[in-house]
Amino acid sequence: MADIIEGKTLSQSILADVAARAAAAAAALGRKPSLAIINYYEDSPSAVYVKRKLSACAKAGIETHLIMPEESKGRDHFFGLLRELGADNAVDAIMVERPLPKGFDAPEAWELLDPAKDPDALSTLNMGRLFLAKTWKEIAEGGFFVPCTALAVVKIMKHAGIDPAGKEIAVVGRSAIVGRPAAHMLTCLDATVTLCHSRTRDINAVLKRAEIIVTAIGKALWLKPDMIGPGATVIDVGTNLGPDGKMCGDADSAALAGTAGRITPVPGGVGPVTLACLLEAAVTAAERRAREIK
Ligand code: NAP
Question: What is the pLDDT of residue 121?
Answer without folding.
Answer: 98
